[in-house]
Write a structure and sequence with these properties.
The protein is mainly beta. The strands form two sheets. Strands 2-3-4-7-6-5 form a six-stranded antiparallel barrel. The protein has a four-stranded antiparallel β-sheet with strand order 8-9-11-10. The chain folds into two domains: 13-119, Beta Barrel (Thrombin, subunit H), CATH 2.40.10.10; 128-190, no CATH class. The protein is globular and about 60 Å long. It has helices at 105-118, 135-141, 185-190, and strands spanning 13-14, 25-30, 38-51, 54-62, 74-77, 81-91, 100-104, 128-132, 149-154, 168-169, 175-177, 208-211. It is 13% helix and 33% strand. A hairpin with an 8-residue loop joins strand 6 and strand 7.
């Protein structure tokens, strides 16, 4: 964190990412390829997106053009409120291909608050690794719908095995909780305690995450 001794600095208004709707217009401001104060626009493509290499953040997915120099820049809604921080793209070439991801501003501000108050960031975890229940896995478990969360493994020292009462048993020991609607199963995977791995950059293989 950086403390600046100054007065009357211009500031932006922090918005609420929870109120964003898929299809809503958003604007990014940055310095792509050294071109200062460049604005690009697009729509929100999805919310709460989990990425394989960044599974602790519920990303905002957009089709806003994000290029080298945009990373760390703000994502605005049409009210002029900051709703995210532009962070990643998915690319086969290392350049923008229509898939961009922003960190929700409430996640970023929570991180700032923890660093300011405690000097470190603490995240909750439930000690398990889970994945989404697909139609194929739901059929294999005999579930009526592809909903819920599939527990892949339990971390050593986590919840004791005898307390896993809910769900159905997979022949290999996996369990699915699909009879009850788990509307935030994606959020659970972000709290499973897995640390994010390093991001790929230019020249990365297909579908790799690239920081911008």
């Amino acid at each position: 964190m950086i403390k600046i001794e100054a007065k009357d600095l211009p500031k932006v208004t922090v918005g609420d990412p929870e109120k964003l709707k898929v299809g809503e217009w958003v604007v990014a401001i940055g310095k792509p390829f050294g071109l200062e104060n460049t604005m690009t626009a697009g729509i929100v493509s999805a919310k709460g997106r989990d990425l394989p290499q960044e599974n602790l953040v519920p990303f905002i997915q957009t089709d806003v053009a994000i290029n080298p120099g945009n990373s760390g820049g703000p994502l605005f809604n049409l009210k002029g409120e900051v709703v995210g921080i532009n962070s990643l793209i998915y690319s086969r070439s290392g350049g923008y291909m229509g898939l961009a991801f922003a960190i929700p501003i409430d996640v970023a501000m929570n991180t700032v608050s923890q660093l300011r108050d405690k000097g470190r960031v603490t995240r909750g975890r439930i000690g398990v690794q889970i994945q989404e229940v697909t139609k194929e896995s739901a059929d294999s478990f005999g579930l009526k719908a592809a909903s819920g969360a599939l527990v892949n493994s339990v971390e050593k020292g986590g919840r004791r095995k005898g307390r896993h009462r809910a769900g159905r048993h997979h022949p290999q020991g996996r369990r699915a909780r699909g009879e009850q609607q788990q509307t935030r199963c994606r959020g659970s995977s972000r709290r499973s305690g897995r640390a994010p791995r390093s991001r790929s950059r230019s020249g990365a293989p297909a579908r790799s995450a690239t920081s911008r």
